[in-house]
Amino acid sequence: MPDPASRDLLPVISALLTTAIRDLRGRPGGPDPIDVVRRFLWWLPLSHDEARAIALRMR
Questions:
Q1: If 51 and its partner were Cys, which of 1, 25, 32, 37 is the partner (CB 3.0–4.6 Å)?
Q2: 54, pLDDT greater than 60
């Protein structure tokens, strides 16, 4: 369960994350969507499958 500060940040990060995935997905040599999710949500302990699920929802 995220702490209160994380709950306040998640809506803001979600908006940024969607844009970042869209912008970085098509760049040659750019990170894949899972890496983008892990970089933006670094303070949450996400497994590979959880990061992948978030990335798929954010596309």
A1: 37
A2: yes
Question: Of 43, 24, 10, whose CA–CA distance to 34 is shortest?
Answer: 24
Q: Is the dihedral of CA 50, 42, 5, 59 positive or negative?
A: negative
Query: C-alpha distances in angstroms, 16 versus 7, 12?
Result: 15, 7
Domain count, the chain: 1
Helix pair 33-40, 48-58: axis angle to 10 deg: 100
Question: For residues 7 and 22, what is the distance between their CA atoms, to the nearest angstrom?
Answer: 23
> Is this structure's pTM higher than 0.85?
no
Instruction: Give the C-alpha separation, 25 to 34, whole Å.
Output: 10
